[in-house]
Amino acid sequence: MYPKLFEIGPIAIHSYGLMLGIAFLIGSTLFSKELKRQRKDENAGITITFLAIIGGLLGAKLFYVIEEWNFGKGGSLASYFRSDVLFSPAGLTFYGGLILAIVFIYIYCRQKNLKLLLIFDSMSPAVMLGYGIARIGCHLSGDGCYGLPVNGTMWEFLGYSYVKGIVPTHAGVLVHPTPIYEMAVSVIIFFILMRMRKKTRFYGQLFFIYLIFSGAERLIVEFIRLNPKVISIFTQAQLISIIMILFGIVMLVLWKNKTDDELIDINNLKQK
Question: Which helix (DSSP H) or strand (DSSP E) does residue 231 occupy?
Answer without folding.
Answer: strand 229-231
